[in-house]
Design brief:
Number of helices: 8
CATH topology of the largest domain: Nucleoside Triphosphate Pyrophosphohydrolase
Strand content: 25-35%
Radius of gyration: 19 Å
Helix content: 25-40%
CATH architecture of the largest domain: Alpha-Beta Complex
Number of strands: 15
CATH class of the largest domain: Alpha Beta
Shape: globular
CATH superfamily of the largest domain: Nucleoside Triphosphate Pyrophosphohydrolase
Order of helices and strands: EEEEHEHHEHHEEEEHHHEEEEE
Distance between the termini: 29 Å
Oligomer: single chain
Number of domains: 2
Length: 294
């Protein structure tokens, strides 16, 4: 039996906004992007913007160009003794959000989130985005050139997922929540992602149940957690009280049916602290993972 592939560090952002024209206490919209079909890891699935942590994200000088670096160093209990690693997940989340969705969580000299909706600014930041994606520029150089500071404190830690050991490509991913700033318009990059949609958590789950979209197990579980709340304020109030545990689905076969068991499932010895949704396992059915109740 070969050793499992190493799990590479990665970060993803669940971007929230109030639904336009909706009354108060309305479930928020969540930005979802569709991965290019030819992608080896969940190609064609709808995901949250994100990707792996690059070497350039390991910002030992984060205090010079980021706000909230001290907070970022303490967000994950398992990384408090490696504070620069904790910061790198935040920087990677910011970079991937800008690359894949065109949203940059950075503040100008007045302390306000940048506005990129006027045509000239939009063209300039599109050029920054393409240069960053191609490796021609770093996020630090863009922030410095525009006189900005990256707003690491805009990211709220949500969860920690590790790809099952059976997969040939594995990631150790930190999930964050952020709110969509006014004055920017998200758009997929047409490279790694081919579509972007605002959906409610419940709406996305319903589309998946009807086989209209594909969701990976961590995406499903995240949407299921967030579907309980009727406002962004309720989600932000819940986050600090939500235990962040290492979620690594366990492969399992029952009579030839391939399954993934989450912590808290009756057949998974790993416990889950706190409330767990009833669907704690996924079964592989016609090429997609479907959530089921044990």
């Amino acid at each position: 039996m070969t050793d499992p592939a190493p799990a590479r560090p990665a970060a993803t952002v669940v971007l929230l906004r109030d639904r336009p024209g909706a009354p108060e206490r309305t479930p928020p919209d969540i930005l979802m992007v569709r991965r290019t079909r030819g992608t080896s890891f969940f190609g064609g699935a709808f995901v949250f913007p994100g990707g792996r942590v690059d070497e350039a994200d390991r910002a030992t000088d984060a205090d010079e160009w980021c706000d909230g670096a001290d907070m970022a160093r303490t967000h994950f209990a398992d990384l408090v003794n490696r504070p620069d690693v904790g910061v790198s997940y935040h920087v990677a989340a910011m970079r991937e959000l800008f690359e894949e969705a065109g949203v940059l969580l950075a503040r100008d000299r007045t302390g306000q989130f940048i506005v990129t909706t006027d045509p000239a600014t939009r063209v300039r930041f599109d050029e920054h985005r393409h240069a960053l994606h191609s490796g021609g520029r770093s996020l630090r150089s863009i922030v410095d050139a525009e006189g900005l500071r990256l707003a690491l404190h805009a990211l709220r830690p949500l969860s920690h997922w590790v790809t099952p050991v059976i997969e040939p490509k594995r990631f150790d991913t930190r999930f964050f929540v952020a709110c969509m700033p006014d004055g920017q318009v998200p758009l997929h990059d047409s490279l790694e992602t081919t579509e972007s949609r605002w959906m409610t958590a419940a709406g996305a789950l319903d589309l998946c149940r009807r086989d209209e979209i594909v969701l990976a197990p961590p995406t499903w579980r995240t949407l299921q957690d967030l579907s309980r709340f009727d406002s962004i304020a309720a989600i932000l109030d819940w986050l600090p009280r939500q235990p962040i545990v290492r979620m690594q689905p366990m492969p399992y076969d029952i009579d030839g049916r391939k399954m993934l068991l989450l912590p808290g499932d009756p057949l998974n010895p790993e416990p889950y602290p706190g409330d767990s949704p009833p669907e704690t396992r996924f079964v592989l059915d016609e090429g997609r993972w479907r959530a089921i109740v044990p």
